[in-house]
Amino acid sequence: MPIVVQKYGGSSVADAESIKRVARRIIDTRKEGNDVVVAVSAMGDTTDELLDLAREVSPMPPPRELDMLMTAGERISMALLAMAIADQGHSVRSFTGSQAGVITDAQHGRAKIIDVTPGRITEALGKGHIVIVAGFQGVSKETKEITTLGRGGSDTTAVALAAALRASVCEIYTDVDGVFTADPRIVPAARKLDRITAEEMLELAASGSKVLHLRSVEYARRFDIPIHVRSSFTSKEGTLVTDQPAPEGEAVEAPIIAGVATDRSEAKVTVVGVPDRSGMAAQIFAAIADAEINLDMIVQNVSATETGLTDISFTVPISEGPAAMQALSKIQDEVGFASLLYDDQIGTLSLVGAGMKSNPGVSATFFKALAAADINVEMISTSEIRISVVMRDDRLDEAVRAVHTAFGLDSDQEAVVYAGTGR
Amino acid sequence: MPIVVQKYGGSSVADAESIKRVARRIIDTRKEGNDVVVAVSAMGDTTDELLDLAREVSPMPPPRELDMLMTAGERISMALLAMAIADQGHSVRSFTGSQAGVITDAQHGRAKIIDVTPGRITEALGKGHIVIVAGFQGVSKETKEITTLGRGGSDTTAVALAAALRASVCEIYTDVDGVFTADPRIVPAARKLDRITAEEMLELAASGSKVLHLRSVEYARRFDIPIHVRSSFTSKEGTLVTDQPAPEGEAVEAPIIAGVATDRSEAKVTVVGVPDRSGMAAQIFAAIADAEINLDMIVQNVSATETGLTDISFTVPISEGPAAMQALSKIQDEVGFASLLYDDQIGTLSLVGAGMKSNPGVSATFFKALAAADINVEMISTSEIRISVVMRDDRLDEAVRAVHTAFGLDSDQEAVVYAGTGR
């Protein structure tokens, strides 16, 4: 029997009625002739409520105890979901992350899955049970401690289970219909994608798209697990994230552009007046790395040769901005740069599409559209299938709409850009 | 270092402030030079809230999933308590029942502890940590499923840990000052006992005293663990429950009477007109046992020889009354009794005291006091150290006060009945 892994987020199981609705959907999947394994998040606001309780007790709770606390959330939702399924006459077993064999490293609060040993799940499926698994949590290999995967970790749990169980598909249920060419709240004309490659989805997730958690897409890509992103409120097909070729009869050529992502969560740090000698940049980035801060875009301006000085700019998550400034201040004398600038009023726009590789006209169209909308581009970074630009954040929405239209992505337009049109 | 096991109930950890207060008390015990292991219940109303959620989802949730759900409650309280202790600068580890090695049978919702393997606790104590353990829960030996011990099970967890760790004492913190000679809400003159034997405490708990859970007293008695029942709101000494002799200098003779317990939770079932032949009673009690109903008191009236018929009365918990009536109705034709009577307007009064064994005057004083208060006794049952009587429930309070006074238990009286006074 094919195995389908499903994941339901907190908003899909926010109350008893929602839980019953999700239970019916799970049972429907079972009735269609599948073994069903479900990863579930904590109900609605449970995670935030537990965090509030923790803060009332201690401003800096030990990470081990915080993980112990947070994992109570999925324990509640998974047990209730199992009860709702049993109430509709189907046999079911719920398992914690530890029971499900989700083995992680020992980094509390942001553990990485290092193995999945789903013996109890396989046994339960063999006995005809539907299986519910607590998302977001696991147990550390060395210390046997309860761990959490960090926010969005339930997506990763689902994909990891799908890989370990050799599932035919991993369905991620959410409150939107699938992956869109842009955020529909910013671009009302955004279209739902039927298919997208894992590589493209990875770039979109890294560029600010919130639909799927970056780590889950990486995991799915590595194990070649198709992800079906769909709404838990309708039965419509959503978006299939896969590098596998489309079946015969579907679109013969993939579109050049998959979508436009936006990100307002980063700040720009500029190190001004860095002596233009080898090793200076290395010292700066070593300081950032030692502070465990994630860098995103990096730009080094052309050196003004007469001064022998250069400026280095990079983006970091706003939440890590203060730590970055502190780390750099400490090495100011040593490196000998002039000053630091901090700017959190920036927005990043990223154009993502596998078809870019073979279509040199994409960059020209992109920058022409931005210029026509009078957008001042402050930083540029590219990958093989992505162009990202930094601008003032109050210009971001306008820029996205301009780019979306320029590439013919608007849903009320006939002209969809396909590879080979030479645009 | 001596090990002290403490247990805090739900009302002691109802909110962040209470949790911090309990944390300070635990740290004080640690500072006095003890290794401290704490069993904690779920916060305040958490257990009831989780039960409500379960009922919203399913009227008859599977016991396995209900246990999975309920155990989230202690996971939350134990993690928060550990955080509060860490916040005050002490190293601490929390463990679930399963992690703490609380091994049970597989009866979900009312599992029995069959072994405690506290390897992780001992290791944590060895590293200087304070240890917090989730009360009320364990893991089944055969099936490795999460189980709960039933209501009041946290007391049993604490005592079982104390036994396994060879603790010097098991302190049960509650919202009263200790064990009283009677329920102070009924008898304002009730006195707190400094000491009581485990045998007496067992009879009091079985007779309706709510201070300690019956199973925890049985467990403590079997392993000879002293229980110190005390208030989490004061630092006063409470009541020591132990069969060990009092140290030199304390009361040389134990009082005859430990206390008077009351119980309104039972109903009386009377099987009327049972043929007075051997085997009839056996059939009746077999039917009750098959329905897994707990009988308490049983009385068979003297047979009316001219009719060859007899009446059999017994008490059952009110919650099991309907099931008892149903089980008996099914065998009416077979046994040939005339009818069934059901009465839930009864109250039970029990006088408990180890000194009764050697003091024949106790019964006389007891029934004289009831007669003087004009109480009509409907059923009588006795053990070596207990006399119980059933009466109308609206007379119970008056009866308790009369008996309490008759045995000189009132706290404003000088005359305390000691063994050897011949009363």
TrEMBL record, chains A, B:
Q: Name one GO molecular function term.
A: kinase activity
Q: Which reaction does it catalyse?
A: L-aspartate + ATP = 4-phospho-L-aspartate + ADP
Enzyme Commission number: 2.7.2.4
Q: In which pathway does it act?
A: Amino-acid biosynthesis; L-lysine biosynthesis via DAP pathway; (S)-tetrahydrodipicolinate from L-aspartate: step 1/4; Amino-acid biosynthesis; L-methionine biosynthesis via de novo pathway; L-homoserine from L-aspartate: step 1/3; Amino-acid biosynthesis; L-threonine biosynthesis; L-threonine from L-aspartate: step 1/5
Top-level enzyme category: transferase
Q: Give all residue intervals belonging to the ACT domain.
A: 269-345, 351-423
Q: Which domain of life is it from?
A: Bacteria
Cite the InterPro entries for this sequence.
Answer: AceGlu_kinase-like_sf, ACT-like_dom_sf, ACT_Aspartokinase, ACT_dom, AKii-LysC-BS, Asp/Glu/Uridylate_kinase, Asp_kin_monofn, Asp_kinase
- Family annotation (Pfam families): AA_kinase, ACT_9
Key words, A-Z: Amino-acid biosynthesis, ATP-binding, Diaminopimelate biosynthesis, Kinase, Lysine biosynthesis, Nucleotide-binding, Transferase
Which SUPFAM superfamilies did the record assign?
ACT-like (SSF55021), Carbamate kinase-like (SSF53633)
PANTHER family listed in its UniProt record: ASPARTATE KINASE (PTHR21499), ASPARTOKINASE (PTHR21499:SF3)
What is the annotated role of this protein in its UniProt record? Answer: Catalyzes the phosphorylation of the beta-carboxyl group of aspartic acid with ATP to yield 4-phospho-L-aspartate, which is involved in the branched biosynthetic pathway leading to the biosynthesis of amino acids lysine, threonine, isoleucine and methionine.
| Family note | Belongs to the aspartokinase family.
* Protein name from the UniProt record: Aspartokinase
